[in-house]
């Protein structure tokens, strides 16, 4: 057996149920699947969505599937006041952040359409939303005992059907 391929002492996990992750735009699609995977790994996850009803339904479905370490907070990354309110909520309820997954985004294009429709809204949400949220959460990262991680997800276009 090759000890490089199968180490005798595997690297211990750096995460636990106390590890807190936030996933934006997580009520469906890629964001929802990322939340599910993080929960399967045993982390505590805050699922965010700009629509409170859709976010609550997503969390309810995960809890029915047996995941208890999932929480919801409404967040619209295109709205600076929503980002401020979310950062305050997270600080009050968790006090620390270990992982941020910037997944929330908008697209106004159909499949195969290479034009840029509604460029101001797209840039405000997809670029500045992630930037402002990350900046707003940096103080919570600094409280983490682990090495904090930020994952920015980018996809050209997705279809849910």
UniProtKB/TrEMBL annotation:
The keyword NADP applies. It is found in: Plastid, Chloroplast. GO terms for cellular component: chloroplast; membrane. Keywords: Chloroplast, NADP, Oxidoreductase, Plastid. GO terms for molecular function: oxidoreductase activity. It holds the Pfam family adh_short. This is 3-oxoacyl-[acyl-carrier-protein] reductase. It comes from Brassica carinata (Ethiopian mustard).
């Amino acid at each position: 057996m090759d000890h490089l391929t199968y180490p005798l002492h595997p690297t211990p996990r750096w995460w636990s149920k106390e590890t807190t992750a936030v996933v934006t735009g997580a009520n469906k699609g890629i964001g929802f699947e990322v939340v599910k995977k993080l929960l399967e790994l045993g982390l505590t996850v805050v699922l965010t969505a700009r629509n409170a009803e859709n976010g609550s339904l997503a969390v309810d479905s995960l809890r029915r599937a047996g995941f208890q370490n999932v929480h919801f907070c409404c967040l619209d990354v295109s709205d600076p006041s929503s980002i401020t309110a979310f950062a305050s909520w997270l600080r009050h309820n968790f006090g620390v952040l270990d992982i941020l997954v910037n997944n929330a985004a908008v697209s106004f294009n159909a499949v195969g359409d290479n034009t840029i429709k509604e460029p101001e809204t797209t840039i405000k949400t997809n670029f500045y939303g992630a930037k402002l949220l990350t900046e707003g959460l940096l103080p919570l990262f600094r409280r983490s005992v682990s090495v904090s991680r930020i994952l920015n997800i980018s996809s050209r276009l997705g279809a849910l059907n």
